[in-house]
Design a protein that fits this description.
A: Helix Hairpins; five-stranded mixed β-sheet; 8 helices; B: alpha/beta; Arc Repressor Mutant, subunit A; 2 domains; five-stranded parallel β-sheet
Chain lengths: 352, 224
């Protein structure tokens, strides 16, 4: 029950009781008068006079009172509804915008003030976390550059034995993996801080998908995985060409990596309503239901056994999700163990 | 060939210098923007390797100064920020190439070499390496008189490798020039394409032309 209904009911109760009291008082008064005026049969007339008064005057007054009460509570509680609506719109991105205040200094205005202070503190800690990741990824780059450089320099010396060279090369491979992780983290940290500028322009999505299809075929070849392009409608979206290519390649790479030998990858690009829908489905082990909601999380690996056999930085899908969201699109994944894994991306079509 | 390395991080400056010297370049190094401007004024360099983040005057402002002074020396920008837009910003400011940190040393050397040769590049429409022939107008590839069929991507890869014949090509450089990727996709796309290309142009032919330099990249040349 909302406060408004409760208050209205109470108010109605109070009005009914006062109506009864008024009725009783009127009855006594009329009864008295009638006793003095006529000596006979006063009771019936008193009752009929009273009920006449109660029904003809009292009830309309109660109805009016109720209506007024309903209006009053509604008016009194309107700021609460407004506040609720404003708070519903608060999320991670707009913590900086304070809720509008009425400035009346009443209880609700005070509540808004306290809530705004809470938002400011939250925003502060969010910012600190963001800045930390941003600085951390920058700070990691210099030592990484030095490490890579020194290892490569060591590799250049002709005096190394083959075993030593092998060790250095393997070290260098890991360093480059680390560098890719740091790159991915930098990109996401910047995206969180809203510092990545995307260059939006009309992009022929079908052309990018066809390109990506060719690359996927090549990536799939060593494992004899068959790649198909089921459909590719000519569709244009507004987007950043580089990031969209990165998105498609990330998805294709995953579809091949988490596949089985002689498996299948099927891509499709079609129009659904006002959106371009790209789906990519792959055979393979599939994803456990409990892992499914977390696959877009940073560094999340569904199957711990997989994390060592599959090379990657663990940020591919997080980056993919960011790219899709930055284009006002949606991304979904469907899968079950030993079933097809399907990723669906929807991007709004270019309005022009 | 004389290279100026402008990098405030001493260790990075030191191994970049060593690597370039090992490749036969004469290398001068300085650690801030003002020194760089002074050095470039007094000495003609063939290439300048310039870090964006320098104490005091930053790399981009140094670069603009160079260009304002009509200094057309090719500039390779280095950056730890690795911003997507920074690359565009750098190229707009007059840089000739851009390399995000952490970079592969081999990649850096390859790029410096590419910048040195830029002006004297082969303008012929037919490229040759040993008996391999690529016509850049008709996109026709032949080895020892036999036609080789190439996909569009394979053609672009082969064209790039042949234009850089004799020079090491890093993976990032290939991704940039052949795929137009401004990010490291973290896949073995390049390696698989190279393997396929090798099957087409090297299998059954001698000498082998397409070589892998472990931990560094690929190299097209007639002699091993």
């Amino acid at each position: 029950m909302t406060i408004r209904t409760r208050l209205t009911l109470w108010y109605a109760g109070v009005l009914t009781v006062s109506l009864l009291v008024i009725g009783l008082g009127t009855y006594r008064e009329i009864d008295e008068q009638l006793r003095h005026a006529h000596r006979r049969a006063p009771a019936e007339r008193a009752i009929s006079e009273t009920s006449e008064m109660v029904f003809e005057v009292g009830l309309p007054a109660v109805a009016l009172g109720l209506l007024g009460g309903w209006w009053l509570t509604r008016k009194a509680l309107a700021p609460v509804s407004q506040l609720t609506e404003a708070i519903t719109k608060v999320h991670e991105r707009n913590l900086r915008e304070p809720l509008p205040r009425t400035g009346s200094g009443d209880e609700l205005d005070r509540l808004t003030e306290v809530f705004n202070a809470l938002l400011a503190r939250l925003d502060d800690s969010f910012n600190r976390v963001r800045e930390f990741s941003l600085h951390a990824s920058h700070e990691l780059k210099t030592p990484l550059t030095v490490l890579c450089g020194e290892t490569e320099t060591a590799l250049r010396a002709n005096s190394r034995s083959p075993a030593e060279r092998e060790r250095l090369v393997s070290q260098l491979d890991e360093l480059h993996r680390l560098a890719r992780i740091v790159d991915g983290l930098t990109l996401l940290a910047k995206a969180d801080a809203g510092q990545v500028d995307l260059k939006f322009e009309p992009v022929g999505l079908d052309e990018l998908v066809r390109d990506n299809f060719a690359d996927a075929q090549i990536l799939a070849e060593p494992q004899h995985i068959q790649v198909e392009l089921a459909g590719c409608e000519p569709l244009a979206v507004r987007g950043d060409r580089h990031r969209l290519r990165q998105l498609l390649l990330n998805l294709a790479d995953n579809a091949v990596k988490y596949n089985q030998p002689q498996g299948r990858v099927t891509m499709n690009l079609r129009r659904t309503g006002e959106a371009a829908e790209f789906t990519i489905a792959n055979t393979g082990a599939g994803i456990l239901p409990e892992s499914l909601p977390r696959v877009f999380d940073r560094f999340y690996r569904g199957d711990p056994a997989h994390s060592h056999t599959v090379d990657g930085c663990g940020l591919g899908l997080s980056i993919a999700k960011w790219i899709v969201l930055a284009h006002q699109g949606t991304i979904q994944i469907e899968s079950a163990p030993s079933q097809l894994t399907t990723v669906t991306v929807r991007l709004p079509l270019n309005a022009t | 060939m004389r290279v100026l390395v402008v990098e405030d991080e001493k260790k990075t400056a030191s191994f970049v210098r060593k690597a370039l010297q090992a490749e036969g370049f004469a290398v001068d190094a300085c650690h801030n923007g003002d020194d760089a401007l002074a050095a470039a004024k007094s000495t003609p360099f063939d290439v300048i390797v310039l870090d964006i983040m320098l104490p005091g005057r930053d790399g981009l402002s140094v670069l603009r100064q160079f260009r304002e002074r009509k200094n057309a020396t090719p500039v390779l920008l280095l950056s730890a920020r690795g911003e997507v837009n920074e690359r565009v910003e750098g190229l707009n400011a007059g840089a000739d190439d851009y390399l995000p940190k952490p970079f592969k040393l081999a990649e850096l050397v390859a790029r410096v070499r590419a910048l040195c040769r830029r002006s004297g590049e082969n303008k012929s429409t037919v490229l040759h390496v040993a008996d391999l022939r690529l016509d850049t107008v008709t996109h026709r590839a032949q080895r020892g008189g036999t036609d080789i069929e190439l996909t569009a991507r394979e053609y672009r890869l082969l064209e790039f490798l042949m234009q850089s014949a004799g020079r090491l090509c890093g993976r990032m450089m290939i991704l940039e020039k052949v795929w137009d990727y401004d990010f490291d996709p973290g896949t073995n796309l390049v390696d698989v394409y190279i393997r396929r290309l090798r099957e087409k142009i090297d299998a059954g032919f001698e000498p082998k032309l397409l070589h892998t330099v472990r931990g560094a990249g690929y190299l097209m040349k007639a002699q091993p």
